[in-house]
Each structure stands twice: as C-alpha cells, then as structure tokens.
Amino acid sequence: MQVIRFNRAVGRPKGRQAGAQAIERLAAILGPGAQPRRDLLIEHLHRIQDAEGQLPHALLAALAQWMRLSQVEVFEVASFYHHFDLVADDAPGPAALTVRVCDSLSCELAGAASLAERLEAALGRQVRVQRVPCVGRCADAPVAVVHRLPVERANVQRVLDAVAARDRECPLPAAPDYARARGDGAYAMLRSLVAGARTAEQVFAELESAGLRGMGGAGFSAGRKWRIVSQQSGPRMLVVNADEGEPGTFKDRFCLESAPHRFLEGMLIAARAVGCEACTIYLRDEYSGVRAMLEREIAALLDDPPIPRADMPAIELRRGAGAYICGEESALIESIEGKRGMPRLRPPYVAQVGLFGRPTLVNNVETLYWVPEVLARGAHWFASHGRHGRHGLRLFSVSGRVRDPGVKLAPAGISLRELVDEHCGGMADGHALYAYLPGGASGGILPASLADLPLDFDALQAHGCFIGSAAVIVLSQHDRARDAAANLMRFFRHESCGQCTPCRAGTAKAVDLLAADRWDGPLLRELSSAMADASICGLGQAAPNPVLSVLDRFAHEVGGEAGE
After folding, report:
1. Strands lying side by side in the sheet with 406-411
2. Residue 560 has pLDDT above 60, yes or no
3. Are strands 236-242 and 314-319 parallel, antiparallel or unpaired?
C-alpha cells in the first residue's frame, strides 16, 4: 500500500502562519487606534519599518492576517518600494544605521561617487552605505542622508559627525506657524470664496486669464482642468502630488518649507471650487522634516479652521516610499490606495475615474502655491510677468555648475543664459557653459549655443526637449553630455516599475549600450523609438530623450556615426 506523506500536518493551513508573538508585536507597533483599511497598507508598512528598521516576514504575515489580505498582496506591495527592507525570519537584517548617498546627476557632478567609496571604507560593515536616486537637495550637492538627517555639501568628516550624533532626524523647517500665518492674512481668499464673494466659475476664469498652468510637468491649464473635474458627477476627490522625484527638482520642498499655509490655502480653494469632499497630500518620504511640520500645521488648521467646519474637506497626509514612478498621477493614486505604484492604462483618465474610483483633481504643489496670490492680485498681475512673449512666473530649481544654485523665482520664458547671469551669479569659477538640462532627467539636453531659447512649455518642443518641472541642471566644459545621459538612463532603469516590457527591458538595454566607448547610433534610435511608442506611461516614453539629445547635438562625444 502506498503511503502518502504530507509536508505539513493535516488540517494545518497552507503558507506562512502569523505567530502569537508577531501578532502581539504588530499590535504594539500600530497602536490601539490603527484601522485595517486596505488603503492604509503602505502607512502600516512604514510604521513597522520605522519601529524595526526592517520588515520581518513574521510581521508581514501578522499584518496580512489583521488586514484580512492575502500575504501575496502585502508582500508584493512591500517589495515594490525602495524604502522598505524585507528580511526573512532566519536572515540577518540590514545594519542598524543607513547612510544614503545621492548619485543623481547634480550630486555626481559634485563628486558623489568618490564620497560613497570613501564612506564605505571609513564606516565598514557597521553602517550600510547605499547609493540612491535624487533626494531633493540638488542645490547643495553632494548630499548624504544619515538615517533621516540630510548632510548637505557632504564630505567624509561631515557624514561621520552626523553618524556620531544622537539626533539623526531632519530638523523641521522654520516656516510661519498657523497662528502667525492667519495673522498675516492667510486664508482670506478661501474665506471670500466660501462666503460667496466670488463663485467657482469666477475662480476658474481668473486662473485661465492668468495663464496659470500645471507646474508638475504637463503644463495643462489649471483653470480648465479644475472646470473639467467640477463637471464630473460627485463625489469628487483632490490629490496633491508632492512626490517630486525628478533629478534636479526641489522647488516643491521650497514651497512647503517657506509658505506651507499659502500652499494649503490653494489646496482648500481648489477643493471648494471643484467640489471635492476630501484632500490627500502624497509627500515623498525623503522630506521627513516637511512631513512632521505639515502634520503639526494641518492638525492646527483642522482644530481651528478658518471657515465653518461643515465647509472643510477631510485632509490626509500620505507618505511615499521611494518610488519615482509615483510622480505619475495614476501610479500615485494606486499608491494612495495601498497598492504598487503602477500606472493605469488610459482612458479613463483620473479626472473621470481616479482615487477610489471617483473623479479626481490632481495638482502639483507649486500650482496650488500660486492660487491665493493670483486670486488676491488678479490675473493681470500674474500674466504681466514673463519674457520673450511668455506670461507668468514660475520657480526654477537650478543646480550644477553655477555660482549660486537654488530655487529661483523668475519670469516664465526667461532663457537659460538670463537665468544663470541674473539669478545664479553666473557660472561657477573655472567653468564655462557647455550644455544644460532644461527640464530634469526626462527633458533632454541642449548645448550652450541654444542657451537663449525661452525656458517655457512650447518653445523647447521644437528642439526635442521640454521644461517639465523646471529642473535646470547646468553643465560646463569639464563635463560630457554622454556621461549625463548615461547617469539619467541608470536612474530610469532603477525607477522603472517593470509593468511594460518596452520600459523595463528598454532602459536596461540602453544602459548597456551607453557604456560602450562608441555608441551604436542606429540601434539606440530604434530602441528609443520602441520605448517612446509602446511604453505605458511617461517614464518609458521620455527616458530616451537625453540619449537622443546626445545623438543629435553632441555626436562628437560618442562617435562620428552616432548622429546619423
């Protein structure tokens, strides 16, 4: 008679089981007020990571059981995001302290690769040194982050001092608190809207007349976008994209650190005008100081609202987990819902079917930052600024080989040469303008001969580039455009969500091709065309832009046939 042997006892459930000790520990970490809502999965994962320094499999099993999810759902989300460390129960976890060294373009120009090597030698195995994508502090490159404490203009000694410090938390920005902001006139435009002094239609028209456009990359008319969402059947939602992960971009951090209540008022005006019942702010995880400040200020705002409580929408602050793809609006919404941040196929568009299946208005921080000012001063005031036939103002994130990098308030349409000379103190000593990136990693690369082009949405398209989030990175004669393109493609390979083959395989193949001394121009162009035509979202579609820029305008760097 054949004997059948089971690997587990009969009647015992399949899979990894949650032990009593893990269930007890999970309850202690999450606290008595925690809710097992599906959309809070990533928030709960953050709580475990913060408490344990890792995500032990046993606690993930306990979390799945408590939330009534399959373990597959929990593990696939936890493994998607870069800031989570999954550790098997019988495996050693990461070092107790992590030092993250930014290796994106601005920091690479400032010597980040050498800094990371020297830190690995100096810190040994007791501290984990990670090379990570942009951390949003490009003006102070190179940057290292010790636990959550950013070390700007970092060198080995400064990082070692931060490692030895007791407090490794990012300090809170010294922004005006709620009481002071109210005293200075904040929320006056919101109160006038709620009181009926102006209608929603008047707000839409004012923003359209001002020419205010989305500042996150696409540049769609803000007033028109608000009107479109307001015409969808309710209930409607509002989502703020504060997940600026584009290398070279840090303007949203500036807005939040310097004037959080100006931004919050813009958000509440948008919610009121469009008729949104709830607002969700999705903030990148690297901005821990901003997050703590916003938690405090939002609590103060909700405790003593400037308008009747019945007119206040719900406000939730959500924490990203280190995934650049979540800057894409549908991937961001997926992440807020507690899922992997993978872009949705469109249509339907998020204005029709967005967060939790409801019509959703998605705006960038800077767009909302300008709203109260435009309404207070009028559309004419905003539109009166601008150069070279453009209208409006915008914030430029400038980094690289300039004397005074940082966030620069300048007229829309200003040229790169004007921006550097008038706002950045000129080029850094010993450097002459060679090339520049007008719109971050995906905006392409232009030579110095085109430095007089207007930095605006429309002007750059004829040259195969776009301004995007206005992340300007300046290169000098000591740099090579091909090296910049290779750095950016490594970034895209790292940040591809993997959902579609043209992006997942295309970025990996491109990284290998760009490592050659002599580029295979025809093959790179064919690959770029496939990625641009067949990728699901803007990451894969725009990833080839820097490569094509080098092939078209810097062929002397990569071989004579590359430009053909």
Report:
1. 406-411, 393-400, 471-476, 433-437, 446-447
2. no
3. unpaired
Torsion of CA 456, 462, 463, 466, to 10 degrees: 40
Q: Give the count of beta carbons closer than 10 Å to the beta carbon of residue 416.
A: 25
pLDDT at site 1: 66
Phi, psi dihedrals of residue 279, rounded to the nearest 5°:
-120, 135
Residue of 389, 391, 396 lying closest to 381 (CA atoms): 391
Please state, in angstroms and rounded to a whole number, the distance separating the CA atoms of residues 471 and 276.
Answer: 30
3-state secondary structure (DSSP) of residue 325: helix
Q: Hunting for tokens 């300007």 — which residue is that?
A: 472
Axis crossing angle, helix 545-553 with helix 521-534, rounded to the nearest 10:
150
Cα–Cα nearest to 496, from 552, 444, 442, 550: 442
CB neighbour burial string for 153-168, b if at least 16 within 10 angstroms, e if fewer? ebeeeebbebbeeeee
Mean pLDDT of all residues belonging to the chain: 95
Give exposure, 182-213, as e/b (b: 16+ Cβ within 10 Å): beeebbebbeebbeeeeebeebbebbbebbbb
Positive or negative, the CA dihedral 360, 364, 365, 366 is negative
| Residues whose CB falls within 8 Å of the CB of residue 195, separated by 6 or more in sequence, listed in order | none
Position 216 scores a pLDDT of: 75
Whether this model's pTM surpasses 0.85: yes
DSSP three-state, residue 441: helix
Q: Residue 154 pLDDT more than 90?
A: yes
Alpha helix stretches (DSSP H) within 231-340: 251-258, 260-274, 288-303, 329-336
Do 341 and 79 meet the contact criterion of CB atoms below 8 Å apart?
no
Structure tokens at 558: 């990569």
- How far apart CA 136 and CA 232 sit, in angstroms, is 35
Report the pLDDT averaged over residues 180-200.
Answer: 96
- AA letter at 287: Y
3-state class of 64 per DSSP?
helix
pLDDT tens-digit series, residues 105-131:
999 999 999 999 999 999 988 899 999
pLDDT tens for 220-237 read 899 999 999 999 998 999
Cα-to-chain-centroid distance, residue 2: 60
In the numeric block, which tokens belong to residue 548?
A: 């094509």
Write down the residue that tokens 């408590």 correspond to.
66
| 276/315 Cα distance (integer angstroms) | 11
- What is the rounded (10 degree) CA torsion for 96, 100, 101, 107? -160
Gyration radius of the chain's alpha carbons: 24
Residue 326 sits at φ, ψ, to 5 deg, of -75, 0
DSSP state of 552: H
Kindly tell me the sign of the dihedral angle through the C-alpha atoms of 164, 167, 173, 174.
negative
- Asked if pLDDT for residue 241 goes beyond 80, the answer is yes
Positive or negative CA dihedral for 465, 467, 471, 472?
Answer: positive
* Interval 9-36: pLDDT, tens: 666 666 778 899 999 999 999 999 999 9
Determine how many CB atoms are found less than 10 A away from the CB of residue 24.
11
CA distance 111 to 94: 26
